[in-house]
Write a structure and sequence with these properties.
disordered N terminus, mainly alpha, three-stranded antiparallel sheet, globular, signal, single chain, 2 domains, 424 residues
C-alpha cells in the first residue's frame, strides 16, 4: 500500500514530462543564445537550483512586458505543471475528498528541494523504512499529505475518505480548470514561429541524465495528455456516484463489485460536464494530430525516433485521428478498420449514455477474476457508438502499412529508462 505515495507525488511532478533526454553538450545555445539579462536564462538558472517557483515567477513577470513570447509561455506552462501539486485546487482535492492531513506547501518545496522527495528517491531512499535507515515517509512525514501510518493497508488509507465520489469528481473539475490554462499556454507556444525548444535541466529532478529538451512535438504531446486527463475528469463528473471510496474498499469481493455496479453510469447529474468532456476530447485529438505533424516535419526530434517511422504510416495515423475528430460530432467512417466500421460519439454528449438498473456491470471469471460484462458494455457503449457493433473479445482492428507496435514502442526514447534508473 505504501507505494501509492510515489504515484501521487511523482505523477504530479513529472506528469507528461516525456521530453528528449539531452546532455549538456547536446544542449548548446551557441553565440546567438540569450544574454544574462534574458529572463529565460535567469529562469533556467533558478531551475538549476531546484527553484521551480522562482523560475515560474520570472516567466510570469517577463510575460507582462512581453506577452505572447513563446519561450516564456512554454516555460510558464511547464513550471505551472510542475507546481500543480502545490496549487490551491490540488490542496482542496487532498484535504477534501482524499482526506489528507495537510496540503503540499510550496514554501517547503518538499518535492523538488535538496533533501526533498525527488532528491531522496534519486539517492536510493525508499518510501518505507529500511532495516537500518528511515524511509521517505518517516523523514518527510510532517510535510507530506498523509502520515506514514495511513499507508499501512487499504482500509486505513481509504477509510477516512467518506465523501461520495461526486465530491471527488467535483474537486477534480477544479484541477481540470488549472490544466486548461496550462494547455492554452502550450498551444500558443507551440503554434508560434518564434518557438524553438525549451530546456528543462535534470537538476530539477536531481539527476542530470534527466535533462529534457522539449520541442513542438513534446508540447503538443503534453497538451494531448492534459486533454485526455480532462476528458476523463469531466465525463466522470457528469454522472451520479453515490458510493464513497471508504465504502467501496471496505466491501469485500462480490459486495464491492455490486456496490460499484449500482452507482456506475446509471444517472447523469450534470449534463454540462458531458459537453466539457466533448471539448476536452476534441482538444486531445487535435493535439495528437499536431504532435505527429510536427514530428514528421522535423525528424531530428528524439522522443519518438521518427527516422524509424514511415511517413506513410504517420499520414495514415493522421487520417484515423481526423476521422475520430469528426466522429465526436456524428457518424464517420474510420479508415483502415477491418471490418469497415463507422463511429458516432455524439450520443455520449447529448443526452448522455446510461445503463438500466437491472444490468450488472461485472461478472466473475474464475480464471481472471472480476471482468466488465458485454451485457453492460454492448447496450451502454458498443451498440450506441459503433456500426457494426461488436463484442469486447472481437473488436475491429486497424490495419496500417506499418505495424503500430513499431510506432508506440518508440515514444519515450531513453527518458523512460533513465527515469526508472533514477527513481526505481
Amino acid at each position: 500500500m505504501k507505494n501509492l505515495l510515489p504515484i501521487f507525488l511523482i505523477f504530479g511532478a513529472l506528469m507528461g514530462m516525456g521530453g528528449c533526454a539531452a546532455s549538456d553538450a547536446e544542449w548548446n545555445l551557441g553565440d546567438s543564445g540569450p544574454s544574462e539579462d534574458d529572463p529565460a536564462l535567469r529562469a533556467e538558472s533558478r531551475l538549476f537550483e531546484w527553484d521551480v517557483a522562482g523560475a515560474n515567477a520570472i516567466y510570469r513577470s517577463a510575460l507582462e512586458s512581453s506577452p505572447g513570447n513563446p519561450q516564456l509561455l512554454a516555460g510558464k506552462a511547464i513550471t505551472d505543471l510542475l507546481l500543480l501539486p502545490y496549487s490551491d485546487s490540488v490542496g482542496a482535492l487532498l484535504q477534501g475528498p482524499l482526506a489528507a492531513k495537510r496540503t503540499l506547501s510550496q514554501s517547503e518545496n518538499v518535492i523538488y528541494r535538496e533533501s526533498g522527495v525527488l532528491y531522496l528517491l534519486a539517492r536510493g531512499v525508499g518510501f518505507e523504512d529500511g532495516e537500518s535507515f528511515p524511509g521517505i515517509l518517516t523523514l518527510l512525514e510532517t510535510q507530506l499529505p498523509w502520515n506514514a501510518s495511513r499507508f499501512d493497508d487499504e482500509n486505513t488509507f481509504f477509510g477516512p475518505m467518506v465523501e461520495p465520489l461526486n465530491g471527488l469528481f467535483d474537486a477534480l473539475v477544479v484541477v481540470s480548470s488549472d490544466l486548461a490554462v496550462i494547455a492554452q499556454d502550450l498551444r500558443e507556444a507551440e503554434s508560434s514561429d518564434g518557438f524553438s525548444a525549451y530546456f528543462l535541466p535534470g537538476e530539477v529532478f536531481h539527476d542530470t541524465e534527466l535533462n529534457l529538451v522539449i520541442n513542438r512535438t513534446e508540447l503538443a504531446g503534453l497538451r494531448a495528455i492534459l486533454g485526455g486527463v480532462r476528458t476523463v475528469v469531466h465525463f466522470g463528473a457528469a454522472y451520479e456516484w453515490g458510493a464513497s471510496l471508504s465504502e467501496i474498499i471496505a466491501a469485500q469481493d462480490e459486495a464491492r463489485y455490486d456496490l460499484i455496479s449500482s452507482t456506475m453510469f446509471r444517472d447523469v447529474r450534470n449534463p454540462d460536464e458531458l459537453l466539457n468532456a466533448r471539448d476536452a476530447l476534441m482538444e486531445t485529438i487535435g493535439a495528437l494530430k499536431s504532435a505527429v505533424e510536427y514530428g514528421i516535419e522535423d525528424r531530428t526530434n528524439d522522443i519518438v525516433e521518427w527516422s524509424n517511422i514511415e511517413e506513410s504510416f504517420a499520414q495514415e495515423l493522421i487520417e484515423v485521428l481526423s476521422a475520430a475528430e469528426q466522429a465526436i460530432e456524428g457518424q464517420t467512417a474510420i479508415p483502415y478498420t477491418s471490418p469497415a466500421t463507422q463511429m458516432d460519439l455524439s450520443p455520449l454528449w447529448s443526452p448522455g449514455l446510461t445503463l438500466d438498473a437491472e444490468t450488472h456491470w461485472f461478472f466473475n471469471e474464475p480464471e481472471f477474476g472480476w471482468q466488465l460484462s458485454d451485457d453492460a458494455l454492448k447496450p451502454f457503449f458498443f451498440d450506441q457508438v459503433f456500426d457494426p457493433t461488436f463484442e469486447s473479445e472481437n473488436p475491429p482492428t486497424l490495419e496500417f502499412s506499418q505495424e503500430s507496435e513499431d510506432f508506440t514502442g518508440l515514444f519515450f526514447g531513453d527518458f523512460e529508462s533513465d527515469l526508472r534508473v533514477t527513481y526505481f
